[in-house]
Amino acid sequence: MAAHPGALLTTDEITAVVDLLKQQGKVGDDTTFRRVSPAHPNGFDDRRIEAWLYHAGSKEIEELVVSLTDESIVTERTVTGQIPQFAFGEVGAAQEVVRSSPLVAEALAKRGIDDPSKVQVDTWPTGNMGHEHEKGRRVTRCIMFWRDDVADNGYAKPIDGLMAFVDLDEMEVYHLDDIGNWPVATETNNYHHGTVPDRDDLKTIDITQPDGPSFTVTDGNLITWGNWDVRAVMDHTEGIVLQSLAWTDQGTRRPIMRRASVAEMVVPYGETRASQAFKNALDIGEVALGRTVNSLTLGCDCLGDITYLDSAWCFDDGTPIHVDQAICIHEEDFGILWKHTDSHSGTTDVRRSRRLVISSIFTVGNYDYGIFWYLYLDGTIQLEIKLTGIVTTQAHGPDDSLTYATLVGPEVAAPIHQHLFCARFDMEVDGPDNTAYRVDIEVDDPGPDNPFDNAFRAVPTRLETEQQATDVVDAAKARTWRVINEAKTNRLGQPTGYKLLPADTATLFPFRARIAGRAGFAMKNLWVTPTSNDERFPAGDHVTQSEPNNQGLPTWTQADRPIADTDITVWHVFGLTHSARPEDFPVMPTEYARCTWVPFGFFDKNPALDIPPGSHCH
Ligand code: CO
User: Could you give all domains of the chain from N- to C-terminal order, each with its CATH number?
Assistant: First the structure.
C-alpha cells in the first residue's frame, strides 16, 4: 500500500520510483537523478513523488511526477537550455580533479605550495558572471585553502587569487584564473575541542520531562501537540517543510497553512576583488538542502526529551541514502506566556509559555543553517533560521583595502555579504480561499477629527493583484501584512486571520549586479501569488548558472493576476546582512533570522486561558 500523500520519503519509495522509471525507459547510461522528493500536496490524494533526471548526452532535464499508488508516471516535462544542480558525486570528483591537475599544481608551485593533498578545494557554483568560456558548459569554480593536516581549518589559510574551472560533463579543469599571489596566512585558527583549555565553571543543565513530552507522533510524521497538528517532511531541495498545519478549536480542525517552507536563499557578496566578487550563491536551488541534512545527536544538537524522524534522499545514480535522526522534535520552556499582578486584589496570575520545536540542520560548504519551526500555545507560528559555521575568507596583505571586508585574523579577512531567505507559505486560513492585506500605521493630519493631534491608526489595504502585493518592510509605518478568510468570522464578526510580523530586514543590496537578475525575489520582502504547483521556487526551478533574466517570482507576478479571495501563497524574504565580526572567527556563534505569524482575530480571545499554572508555581 502506498504511503500517505504527506509522508516522509523512504529508501523503499526511492527504490520504487527509480525502478519504475527504469522500467519505463526513462533512465539511460548517461542519466543521473537530481531531485527525488514528495510532490506538493495540492489537488490529489495519491502518493506522488517528483523526480528530476539529467541526461548528460542531450543536456536535457526531465521533470517527472510518479504516482506510487497507481505505479505510473503522472506528468512529464522536458526542459532544455537550463543547467541542473550539481550531482552529489560530481562535487567530490571535481575536488580530486583539481588536486590532480598539472595546471593547478604549477600555479600552486609558484606560491611555494608543493603538496596538493593538503589543499582544500571548495566547489562553488560559478555564479554566471557572463564569461564566454562558461557558455554551454556545466561549471564549478573551485577555490582553494591550505590545511596543515586533515582537521585543520582551511578557512584560516585561503589560497587567494587562484580559481580552477571544472567542466562537470568532461570532468576536467578547462580554465584557470590566476589573478594575484597573496601570501597564505600562517596563523592556525582551529576550533575543535582541545584547541583551547576547557573552562570549568559551567554546571550541568538537564532538561527532564518525567511524564514524557506532550506531543505525539503517529502515522510516521503526523505530529500532534495541544491544539496543533502538522506533518513534517523533508524536501530534496528545500529541506524541512511543514505540511497541513492546523489548530483544533473545540473539536473543529481549522487549517492555517497547507505547506510552509524555505524555498530559496541568496548569499551575495560585496567584495570587489575578482577572486571574491563572483560569490553569490543560491544555497537552496543550487545545493539542495535535503541531501545536506545532518544526522542529529542527542544532547548536542537537541537537548531534552527528543523524538527524531529519519529522512532519505536519492544519490545521483539512484541509490537511496538513509539519514538517521534528520528531524528533531521537542518541547522548550519559553518563559512567560502571560502574567498579571492585580494590585487591587493582591492576586498574581502567571502561566508558562512553551513551544514545540521541529527542526533540522543543513551544512552547505563552509556554512551551517538550522531551520527551526516553532509552534506556540497562543497560536503563534515562527520560522527561525540559525546561521553558524565558518565565514568564507580572503587573504589580506598589507596593501589590501578593507572597504568591503573585515579583518578576522592577522592575514585573513571576511567579505561583507547577505543571507536572504525566501519563505513560501501556501496559506489556507480556515479554508483555501484567503485574502492578503497590507497594514500600515498612519498619522492623521490636524483637523476637526483630530482635535488633540494624537490620532494614528492602522490602515489596512486589500491587496487585489500581484503587483499591489509586491512590497517591502517599512519600519517607519510599522508595516505588517495580514491574511484573512473573508468568509469566516469570529464571535465579534471580524474575519479570521493571521498577521505576518517581519523582522528588520533589508532587500538585496547589489541590485545592479547580475545576481539581482538571478535572484530577483530578494529585491522585495513580500510577494503574493495565486497558489500553483508550477510556482514553487522563487528564482526558478533550475537556478544553477541561470541567466539574469528574472525567472521565478519577478516574471510570474508580471501577469498581475488577481489574488483576493482565492488560494494564495505568501512569499516572505528576510535575513541578515553580515558585516563579519572578529568574533565570527574561526567559527561563528549562531546568528538568528526569523519571521512570525500571529493569530489576528483567528480566535475569539486569548486562546491560552486554559493553560494551568505550572506545577512548580506556588
Ligand atoms: Co554570513
Answer: 11-79 (3.10.450.40), 88-178 (3.10.450.40), 217-599 (2.70.98.20)
